[in-house]
Amino acid sequence: MIYTISIVLDKRRKKGNGTYPVKLRAFNRQLKKDKRYPLYIDLSEDEYIEVWKNPENKSFRGAKKELEIKLKAIESRANEEAKQMTVFDFDRFENRLFRKSSDKNSVKYYFDTIIKNKMDDNKIGTAESYKYTLNSLAEFIKDKKNVNIEKLTFSLIDVSWLKEYEKFMLDKGKSYTTVAIYTRTLRVVFNVAIENNDISIDIYPFGKNKYKIPRTKKVKKALNSQQLKTLYSAETLNDNEVKCKDFWFFSFACNGMNLKDIALLKYSDFESDKFNYYRAKTLDKSAEKTKITIYLTEFTSYVIEKYGNKKKTGFVFNIVSEKDDNLTEYKKIKNYTRYINDHIKKIAKRIEIPNDISSYWARHSFATNSIRKGVSKEFISEALNHSSMEVTDNYFAGFEDETKKEFANTIMDF
Protein backbone atom coordinates (compact mmCIF):
# COMPACT_ATOMS: atom_id res chain seq x y z
CA MET A 1 0.00 0.00 0.00
CA ILE A 2 1.56 3.28 -1.09
CA TYR A 3 -0.66 5.53 1.04
CA THR A 4 -1.51 6.01 4.71
CA ILE A 5 -4.73 7.55 6.00
CA SER A 6 -4.88 8.94 9.56
CA ILE A 7 -6.64 11.45 11.82
CA VAL A 8 -4.13 13.99 13.17
CA LEU A 9 -4.06 17.06 15.37
CA ASP A 10 -2.48 19.87 13.35
CA LYS A 11 -0.32 21.61 15.94
CA ARG A 12 1.31 24.02 13.48
CA ARG A 13 -0.90 26.88 14.69
CA LYS A 14 -2.57 27.09 18.06
CA LYS A 15 -5.92 28.85 18.28
CA GLY A 16 -6.77 31.52 20.86
CA ASN A 17 -8.81 29.12 22.99
CA GLY A 18 -5.92 26.67 23.26
CA THR A 19 -7.23 24.17 20.66
CA TYR A 20 -5.83 22.87 17.37
CA PRO A 21 -7.70 21.83 14.19
CA VAL A 22 -8.28 18.10 13.71
CA LYS A 23 -7.47 17.03 10.14
CA LEU A 24 -7.52 13.99 7.91
CA ARG A 25 -3.98 13.24 6.71
CA ALA A 26 -3.28 11.37 3.48
CA PHE A 27 0.37 10.38 2.94
CA ASN A 28 1.73 9.05 -0.36
CA ARG A 29 4.85 7.01 0.41
CA GLN A 30 6.02 6.94 -3.20
CA LEU A 31 5.94 10.71 -3.56
CA LYS A 32 6.83 11.29 0.11
CA LYS A 33 4.06 13.87 0.10
CA ASP A 34 1.11 14.43 2.38
CA LYS A 35 -2.04 16.56 2.35
CA ARG A 36 -4.21 17.49 5.29
CA TYR A 37 -7.93 18.04 4.89
CA PRO A 38 -9.87 20.13 7.44
CA LEU A 39 -12.65 18.39 9.35
CA TYR A 40 -13.82 21.59 11.08
CA ILE A 41 -13.29 20.05 14.51
CA ASP A 42 -11.06 21.73 17.12
CA LEU A 43 -9.61 19.93 20.15
CA SER A 44 -7.01 20.57 22.80
CA GLU A 45 -4.06 18.18 22.88
CA ASP A 46 -5.45 16.44 25.97
CA GLU A 47 -8.91 16.08 24.37
CA TYR A 48 -7.39 14.64 21.19
CA ILE A 49 -5.40 12.08 23.19
CA GLU A 50 -8.40 11.21 25.32
CA VAL A 51 -10.89 10.83 22.45
CA TRP A 52 -8.71 9.47 19.65
CA LYS A 53 -5.63 7.99 21.29
CA ASN A 54 -7.42 6.56 24.33
CA PRO A 55 -6.85 2.92 25.33
CA GLU A 56 -9.23 0.42 23.77
CA ASN A 57 -10.74 -0.52 27.12
CA LYS A 58 -11.83 3.06 27.85
CA SER A 59 -15.43 3.89 26.98
CA PHE A 60 -17.25 7.18 26.47
CA ARG A 61 -20.76 8.46 26.62
CA GLY A 62 -22.46 11.54 25.25
CA ALA A 63 -20.56 14.10 23.12
CA LYS A 64 -17.16 12.40 23.39
CA LYS A 65 -18.58 9.07 22.22
CA GLU A 66 -20.33 10.77 19.26
CA LEU A 67 -17.07 12.49 18.33
CA GLU A 68 -15.13 9.20 18.46
CA ILE A 69 -17.74 7.52 16.21
CA LYS A 70 -17.65 10.46 13.77
CA LEU A 71 -13.84 10.40 13.47
CA LYS A 72 -13.80 6.63 12.98
CA ALA A 73 -16.44 6.95 10.25
CA ILE A 74 -14.38 9.64 8.47
CA GLU A 75 -11.21 7.55 8.64
CA SER A 76 -13.05 4.43 7.48
CA ARG A 77 -14.64 6.19 4.51
CA ALA A 78 -11.31 7.80 3.54
CA ASN A 79 -9.62 4.38 3.54
CA GLU A 80 -12.46 2.91 1.50
CA GLU A 81 -12.31 5.70 -1.11
CA ALA A 82 -8.51 5.40 -1.37
CA LYS A 83 -8.80 1.60 -1.75
CA GLN A 84 -11.19 2.03 -4.70
CA MET A 85 -8.53 3.97 -6.66
CA THR A 86 -6.25 1.95 -8.95
CA VAL A 87 -3.55 4.61 -8.56
CA PHE A 88 -3.62 6.93 -5.56
CA ASP A 89 -4.02 10.53 -6.66
CA PHE A 90 -4.58 13.42 -4.23
CA ASP A 91 -7.02 15.36 -6.44
CA ARG A 92 -9.18 12.33 -7.20
CA PHE A 93 -9.06 11.24 -3.57
CA GLU A 94 -10.20 14.68 -2.43
CA ASN A 95 -13.06 14.77 -4.97
CA ARG A 96 -14.26 11.31 -3.96
CA LEU A 97 -13.98 11.96 -0.24
CA PHE A 98 -15.92 15.21 -0.08
CA ARG A 99 -18.68 14.40 -2.53
CA LYS A 100 -22.09 13.24 -1.37
CA SER A 101 -22.43 9.50 -0.90
CA SER A 102 -25.16 9.46 -3.58
CA ASP A 103 -22.85 11.03 -6.19
CA LYS A 104 -21.20 7.72 -7.08
CA ASN A 105 -24.48 6.53 -8.65
CA SER A 106 -25.46 9.93 -10.07
CA VAL A 107 -25.42 10.33 -13.85
CA LYS A 108 -25.46 14.14 -13.58
CA TYR A 109 -22.54 14.15 -11.12
CA TYR A 110 -20.43 12.16 -13.57
CA PHE A 111 -21.43 14.30 -16.55
CA ASP A 112 -20.62 17.49 -14.61
CA THR A 113 -17.25 16.09 -13.52
CA ILE A 114 -16.27 15.05 -17.05
CA ILE A 115 -17.44 18.40 -18.48
CA LYS A 116 -15.30 20.27 -15.94
CA ASN A 117 -12.26 18.10 -16.72
CA LYS A 118 -12.70 18.65 -20.48
CA MET A 119 -12.98 22.42 -19.95
CA ASP A 120 -9.83 22.37 -17.79
CA ASP A 121 -8.02 20.48 -20.58
CA ASN A 122 -9.18 23.09 -23.14
CA LYS A 123 -11.35 20.48 -24.91
CA ILE A 124 -14.25 22.90 -25.07
CA GLY A 125 -15.95 21.33 -28.09
CA THR A 126 -15.95 17.93 -26.38
CA ALA A 127 -17.32 19.49 -23.18
CA GLU A 128 -20.12 21.04 -25.25
CA SER A 129 -21.06 17.65 -26.70
CA TYR A 130 -21.36 16.22 -23.17
CA LYS A 131 -23.60 19.17 -22.22
CA TYR A 132 -25.86 18.52 -25.23
CA THR A 133 -26.20 14.85 -24.23
CA LEU A 134 -26.96 15.71 -20.60
CA ASN A 135 -29.60 18.24 -21.68
CA SER A 136 -31.20 15.63 -23.95
CA LEU A 137 -31.33 13.05 -21.14
CA ALA A 138 -32.81 15.67 -18.80
CA GLU A 139 -35.51 16.49 -21.34
CA PHE A 140 -36.37 12.81 -21.78
CA ILE A 141 -36.75 11.88 -18.12
CA LYS A 142 -38.65 15.09 -17.37
CA ASP A 143 -41.05 14.46 -20.26
CA LYS A 144 -41.49 10.70 -19.89
CA LYS A 145 -40.78 10.03 -16.21
CA ASN A 146 -41.53 13.42 -14.63
CA VAL A 147 -38.17 13.20 -12.86
CA ASN A 148 -35.44 15.83 -12.62
CA ILE A 149 -31.99 14.98 -13.97
CA GLU A 150 -30.53 15.18 -10.43
CA LYS A 151 -32.46 12.01 -9.59
CA LEU A 152 -31.21 9.97 -12.56
CA THR A 153 -28.95 7.15 -11.39
CA PHE A 154 -26.94 4.63 -13.41
CA SER A 155 -28.99 1.78 -11.92
CA LEU A 156 -32.18 3.17 -13.52
CA ILE A 157 -30.75 2.97 -17.05
CA ASP A 158 -31.30 -0.46 -18.55
CA VAL A 159 -31.97 -1.80 -22.05
CA SER A 160 -35.67 -0.93 -22.05
CA TRP A 161 -34.88 2.58 -20.75
CA LEU A 162 -32.44 3.15 -23.62
CA LYS A 163 -34.89 1.84 -26.21
CA GLU A 164 -37.53 4.20 -24.86
CA TYR A 165 -35.03 7.07 -25.03
CA GLU A 166 -34.21 6.16 -28.65
CA LYS A 167 -37.92 6.20 -29.57
CA PHE A 168 -38.36 9.54 -27.78
CA MET A 169 -35.53 11.04 -29.86
CA LEU A 170 -36.84 9.68 -33.16
CA ASP A 171 -40.37 10.89 -32.39
CA LYS A 172 -38.90 14.38 -31.89
CA GLY A 173 -37.47 14.26 -35.41
CA LYS A 174 -33.88 13.49 -34.39
CA SER A 175 -31.84 11.23 -36.63
CA TYR A 176 -30.29 7.87 -35.80
CA THR A 177 -26.93 9.64 -36.08
CA THR A 178 -27.87 11.97 -33.21
CA VAL A 179 -29.15 9.02 -31.16
CA ALA A 180 -25.84 7.24 -31.76
CA ILE A 181 -23.78 10.27 -30.72
CA TYR A 182 -25.70 10.78 -27.48
CA THR A 183 -25.83 7.11 -26.48
CA ARG A 184 -22.11 6.70 -27.22
CA THR A 185 -21.43 9.64 -24.92
CA LEU A 186 -23.58 8.06 -22.21
CA ARG A 187 -21.67 4.81 -22.68
CA VAL A 188 -18.38 6.64 -22.05
CA VAL A 189 -19.82 8.05 -18.80
CA PHE A 190 -20.85 4.53 -17.73
CA ASN A 191 -17.32 3.28 -18.45
CA VAL A 192 -15.72 6.05 -16.39
CA ALA A 193 -17.99 5.28 -13.41
CA ILE A 194 -17.13 1.56 -13.69
CA GLU A 195 -13.38 2.30 -13.92
CA ASN A 196 -13.71 4.37 -10.73
CA ASN A 197 -15.37 1.39 -9.01
CA ASP A 198 -18.43 3.53 -8.27
CA ILE A 199 -20.88 1.25 -10.07
CA SER A 200 -20.87 -2.46 -10.87
CA ILE A 201 -20.26 -3.72 -14.38
CA ASP A 202 -23.32 -5.92 -13.80
CA ILE A 203 -25.63 -2.96 -14.53
CA TYR A 204 -23.81 -2.03 -17.77
CA PRO A 205 -26.61 -1.84 -20.40
CA PHE A 206 -24.51 -1.82 -23.59
CA GLY A 207 -22.95 -4.61 -25.65
CA LYS A 208 -23.75 -8.15 -26.68
CA ASN A 209 -27.36 -9.16 -26.03
CA LYS A 210 -27.99 -5.71 -24.57
CA TYR A 211 -28.71 -2.28 -26.06
CA LYS A 212 -27.15 -1.82 -29.49
CA ILE A 213 -26.15 1.73 -30.35
CA PRO A 214 -27.45 2.52 -33.87
CA ARG A 215 -24.76 2.22 -36.53
CA THR A 216 -25.02 4.81 -39.26
CA LYS A 217 -22.84 5.38 -42.25
CA LYS A 218 -21.64 8.96 -42.29
CA VAL A 219 -22.39 10.45 -45.70
CA LYS A 220 -19.44 12.49 -46.86
CA LYS A 221 -21.08 15.23 -48.89
CA ALA A 222 -19.06 16.87 -51.63
CA LEU A 223 -19.42 19.01 -54.72
CA ASN A 224 -18.46 17.53 -58.07
CA SER A 225 -16.19 19.39 -60.48
CA GLN A 226 -19.08 21.08 -62.31
CA GLN A 227 -20.63 22.26 -59.05
CA LEU A 228 -17.26 23.57 -57.92
CA LYS A 229 -16.95 25.58 -61.14
CA THR A 230 -20.47 26.93 -60.68
CA LEU A 231 -19.78 28.00 -57.09
CA TYR A 232 -16.39 29.52 -57.91
CA SER A 233 -17.82 31.68 -60.71
CA ALA A 234 -21.06 32.50 -58.83
CA GLU A 235 -22.06 36.14 -58.58
CA THR A 236 -21.89 37.55 -55.05
CA LEU A 237 -24.27 40.20 -53.74
CA ASN A 238 -22.13 41.77 -51.00
CA ASP A 239 -18.70 41.79 -49.34
CA ASN A 240 -19.73 39.12 -46.83
CA GLU A 241 -20.51 36.66 -49.61
CA VAL A 242 -17.23 37.49 -51.36
CA LYS A 243 -15.28 36.87 -48.18
CA CYS A 244 -17.09 33.65 -47.28
CA LYS A 245 -16.67 32.23 -50.77
CA ASP A 246 -12.95 33.09 -50.70
CA PHE A 247 -12.47 31.31 -47.37
CA TRP A 248 -14.48 28.27 -48.48
CA PHE A 249 -12.22 27.85 -51.51
CA PHE A 250 -9.14 28.63 -49.41
CA SER A 251 -10.08 25.62 -47.27
CA PHE A 252 -10.63 23.53 -50.41
CA ALA A 253 -7.32 24.60 -51.98
CA CYS A 254 -5.44 23.85 -48.75
CA ASN A 255 -6.31 20.14 -48.84
CA GLY A 256 -9.64 20.67 -47.04
CA MET A 257 -8.08 22.60 -44.16
CA ASN A 258 -10.48 22.98 -41.23
CA LEU A 259 -11.68 26.51 -40.42
CA LYS A 260 -10.28 26.20 -36.90
CA ASP A 261 -6.84 25.50 -38.32
CA ILE A 262 -7.23 28.46 -40.70
CA ALA A 263 -8.14 30.70 -37.76
CA LEU A 264 -5.08 29.52 -35.80
CA LEU A 265 -2.67 29.83 -38.75
CA LYS A 266 0.31 32.07 -37.90
CA TYR A 267 2.87 33.86 -40.04
CA SER A 268 5.53 31.92 -38.14
CA ASP A 269 4.14 28.78 -39.82
CA PHE A 270 5.29 30.04 -43.26
CA GLU A 271 8.46 29.00 -44.98
CA SER A 272 9.18 30.29 -48.48
CA ASP A 273 6.42 28.95 -50.77
CA LYS A 274 4.61 26.84 -48.17
CA PHE A 275 3.28 26.72 -44.63
CA ASN A 276 3.17 23.94 -42.05
CA TYR A 277 0.62 23.27 -39.32
CA TYR A 278 -0.68 20.60 -36.98
CA ARG A 279 -4.34 19.68 -37.26
CA ALA A 280 -6.03 20.86 -34.04
CA LYS A 281 -8.68 18.13 -34.13
CA THR A 282 -6.18 15.26 -33.92
CA LEU A 283 -3.26 16.93 -32.11
CA ASP A 284 -4.12 15.49 -28.67
CA LYS A 285 -5.29 12.10 -29.93
CA SER A 286 -1.93 10.69 -30.91
CA ALA A 287 1.51 10.69 -29.34
CA GLU A 288 3.01 11.04 -32.82
CA LYS A 289 2.43 14.59 -34.08
CA THR A 290 2.20 14.82 -37.86
CA LYS A 291 2.96 18.15 -39.48
CA ILE A 292 0.91 19.01 -42.57
CA THR A 293 2.58 20.95 -45.37
CA ILE A 294 0.56 23.13 -47.76
CA TYR A 295 2.21 24.65 -50.82
CA LEU A 296 0.97 28.10 -51.76
CA THR A 297 -0.79 28.71 -55.06
CA GLU A 298 -1.79 31.89 -56.84
CA PHE A 299 -5.26 31.67 -55.28
CA THR A 300 -4.20 30.89 -51.68
CA SER A 301 -1.53 33.62 -51.84
CA TYR A 302 -4.21 36.05 -53.03
CA VAL A 303 -6.50 35.19 -50.07
CA ILE A 304 -3.64 35.61 -47.58
CA GLU A 305 -2.64 38.95 -49.09
CA LYS A 306 -6.24 40.20 -49.19
CA TYR A 307 -7.40 39.14 -45.72
CA GLY A 308 -4.15 38.66 -43.78
CA ASN A 309 -3.22 41.22 -41.12
CA LYS A 310 -0.95 43.94 -42.48
CA LYS A 311 1.67 43.62 -39.73
CA LYS A 312 2.36 40.07 -40.92
CA THR A 313 2.91 38.87 -37.34
CA GLY A 314 0.90 36.60 -35.07
CA PHE A 315 -2.27 35.08 -36.49
CA VAL A 316 -2.63 35.48 -40.25
CA PHE A 317 -6.35 36.25 -40.25
CA ASN A 318 -8.16 38.50 -37.79
CA ILE A 319 -10.46 35.77 -36.51
CA VAL A 320 -8.93 35.23 -33.07
CA SER A 321 -6.46 37.25 -31.00
CA GLU A 322 -3.36 36.39 -28.98
CA LYS A 323 -5.15 37.92 -25.97
CA ASP A 324 -8.12 35.54 -26.15
CA ASP A 325 -8.56 32.93 -23.44
CA ASN A 326 -9.50 29.40 -24.48
CA LEU A 327 -13.26 29.90 -24.16
CA THR A 328 -13.23 33.21 -26.07
CA GLU A 329 -11.14 31.65 -28.84
CA TYR A 330 -13.55 28.71 -29.08
CA LYS A 331 -16.58 31.01 -29.34
CA LYS A 332 -14.93 33.22 -31.99
CA ILE A 333 -14.06 30.25 -34.18
CA LYS A 334 -17.55 28.79 -33.76
CA ASN A 335 -19.15 32.14 -34.71
CA TYR A 336 -16.82 32.51 -37.70
CA THR A 337 -17.70 29.02 -38.91
CA ARG A 338 -21.40 29.88 -38.64
CA TYR A 339 -20.75 33.12 -40.54
CA ILE A 340 -19.05 31.25 -43.41
CA ASN A 341 -21.76 28.59 -43.54
CA ASP A 342 -24.66 31.05 -43.50
CA HIS A 343 -23.37 33.01 -46.49
CA ILE A 344 -22.15 30.04 -48.53
CA LYS A 345 -25.64 28.52 -48.18
CA LYS A 346 -27.23 31.72 -49.53
CA ILE A 347 -25.01 31.58 -52.60
CA ALA A 348 -25.68 27.86 -53.10
CA LYS A 349 -29.44 28.39 -52.97
CA ARG A 350 -29.31 30.99 -55.75
CA ILE A 351 -27.17 28.89 -58.07
CA GLU A 352 -29.06 25.64 -57.40
CA ILE A 353 -26.32 23.53 -55.90
CA PRO A 354 -27.00 21.63 -52.64
CA ASN A 355 -27.96 24.34 -50.16
CA ASP A 356 -27.03 22.26 -47.11
CA ILE A 357 -23.42 22.94 -48.08
CA SER A 358 -21.08 23.90 -45.24
CA SER A 359 -17.40 24.62 -44.68
CA TYR A 360 -16.85 20.89 -44.07
CA TRP A 361 -17.93 20.17 -47.64
CA ALA A 362 -14.68 21.80 -48.76
CA ARG A 363 -12.73 18.96 -47.13
CA HIS A 364 -14.83 16.21 -48.68
CA SER A 365 -14.88 17.98 -52.05
CA PHE A 366 -11.08 18.13 -52.02
CA ALA A 367 -10.87 14.39 -51.28
CA THR A 368 -13.53 13.32 -53.78
CA ASN A 369 -12.19 15.42 -56.64
CA SER A 370 -8.62 14.28 -55.92
CA ILE A 371 -9.82 10.68 -56.24
CA ARG A 372 -11.50 11.51 -59.57
CA LYS A 373 -8.20 12.90 -60.80
CA GLY A 374 -6.55 9.58 -60.03
CA VAL A 375 -4.62 10.65 -56.93
CA SER A 376 -3.39 7.71 -54.85
CA LYS A 377 -4.99 6.63 -51.61
CA GLU A 378 -1.69 7.24 -49.78
CA PHE A 379 -1.58 10.87 -50.94
CA ILE A 380 -5.18 11.48 -49.82
CA SER A 381 -4.47 9.94 -46.42
CA GLU A 382 -1.42 12.14 -45.91
CA ALA A 383 -3.09 15.29 -47.24
CA LEU A 384 -6.10 14.87 -44.92
CA ASN A 385 -3.93 13.75 -41.98
CA HIS A 386 -6.01 10.65 -41.38
CA SER A 387 -5.23 8.54 -38.32
CA SER A 388 -5.26 5.35 -40.41
CA MET A 389 -5.77 4.12 -43.96
CA GLU A 390 -9.17 2.75 -42.90
CA VAL A 391 -10.46 6.33 -42.52
CA THR A 392 -9.28 7.13 -46.04
CA ASP A 393 -10.97 3.97 -47.32
CA ASN A 394 -14.32 5.53 -46.40
CA TYR A 395 -13.79 8.23 -49.03
CA PHE A 396 -12.85 5.69 -51.69
CA ALA A 397 -15.79 3.45 -50.73
CA GLY A 398 -18.20 6.34 -51.24
CA PHE A 399 -16.60 7.19 -54.56
CA GLU A 400 -16.84 3.57 -55.70
CA ASP A 401 -20.56 3.48 -54.82
CA GLU A 402 -21.12 6.57 -56.97
CA THR A 403 -19.16 5.02 -59.83
CA LYS A 404 -21.27 1.85 -59.61
CA LYS A 405 -24.44 3.96 -59.77
CA GLU A 406 -23.20 5.83 -62.84
CA PHE A 407 -22.29 2.51 -64.48
CA ALA A 408 -25.77 1.08 -63.73
CA ASN A 409 -27.42 4.08 -65.38
CA THR A 410 -25.35 3.73 -68.54
CA ILE A 411 -25.31 -0.06 -68.92
CA MET A 412 -28.06 0.06 -71.59
CA ASP A 413 -26.34 2.79 -73.62
CA PHE A 414 -25.29 0.54 -76.56
Characteristic terms for this protein:
16 helices; three-stranded antiparallel β-sheet; mainly alpha; 53% helix; 3 domains; hpI Integrase, Chain A; 414 residues; 6 strands
Structure description:
This is Integrase. The protein has 414 residues and is mostly helical. It has 16 helices and 6 strands. It has helices spanning 45-52, 62-83, 90-98, 107-120, 124-144, 159-171, 176-195, 225-232, 239-253, 259-263, 280-283, 298-307, 326-351, 360-372, 377-384, 389-410, and strands at 3-9, 20-28, 33-43, 270-271, 274-278, 291-295. The protein has a 3-stranded antiparallel sheet. A hairpin with a 2-residue loop joins strand 4 and strand 5. Helix 4 (107-120) packs antiparallel against helix 5 (124-144). The mean pLDDT is 88.
Short description:
This protein has 414 residues and is mainly alpha-helical. It has 16 helices and 6 strands.
Round the mean pLDDT to the nearest integer and report it.
88
- Residue share in β-strands: 5-15%
Uncertain segments are none
Number of helices: 16
Coiled coil: 57-84
InterPro entries: CB, DNA_brk_join_enz, Integrase-like_cat_sf, Integrase_catalytic, Integrase_recombinase_N, SAM-like_dom, Tyrosine_recombinase_XerCD
Protein name: Integrase
Domain Tyr recombinase: 218-408
Topology:
Elements: E1 3-9, E2 20-28, E3 33-43, H1 45-52, H2 62-83, H3 90-98, H4 107-120, H5 124-144, H6 159-171, H7 176-195, H8 225-232, H9 239-253, H10 259-263, E4 270-271, E5 274-278, H11 280-283, E6 291-295, H12 298-307, H13 326-351, H14 360-372, H15 377-384, H16 389-410
Antiparallel strand pairs: 1-2, 2-3, 4-5, 5-6
